[in-house]
Amino acid sequence: MSFEAIRADFSAIANWVKPNSTLLDLGCGDGVFLEYIRRAKQVKTYGVEISDEQVLACVAKDLDVIQQDLEGGLALFEDQSFDTVVLSQTLQTIHQTEAILREVVRVGKECVVSFPNFAHWSHRVAVFMGHMPVSKSLPYDWYNTPNVRVLTIKDFESLASKIGIRILDRVVLHDSQEVKWGANLFGSLAIYRVGRT
After folding, report:
1. pLDDT at residue 142 greater than cutoff 90
2. For labelling alongside 72, which of 5, 157, 175, 179 has CA 20 to 30 A away?
3. In what order do the strands lie in the sheet with 44-49?
4. For residue 109, how many other CB atoms are within 10 A of its CB?
5. Which residue ranges make up each domain of the chain?
6. What is the CATH code of the structural domain delimited by 3-118+147-196?
């Protein structure tokens, strides 16, 4: 795996992860991020994934992974049992949004949550033109998307405040570049470092 070709959001998340710490990646997919962070920061990694194919891909990379549906919660894990818990581009696929966010901050000393920002200007234009957006950050049609929720940066920040999640830091990206101004309009991917209040 080439570190030069790693996704920009992975790099942003890695900036918040301490070397030689423990990390749990929820919805870890094929384990590319786990493999990257393990090598970049010498982190002890664990993953949770539901897909048979993705779990096998993780095992092939010699990654520790548990096959589990996140909708059932994280009862397997004790409070504050990981230095960092990552929920990267998975939040929008979860039905029990509030419950999983509460679980994430229960299990992790710090947590990283990222999601595609539905309020990006191109998504607004698509809806204005009468159809659901398809973009790099939302690459599925309405009828085959794994996403069950669409949310914006403002939506996430409002929910975090409502359920007692403290926002520690935020990076907003578009086409791998950080968006500093007008993030809810010009950012297509939001990445938050959060914790308990």
Report:
1. no
2. 157
3. 65-67, 44-49, 22-26, 82-88, 108-116, 189-196, 165-174, 177-178
4. 17
5. 3-118+147-196
6. 3.40.50.150
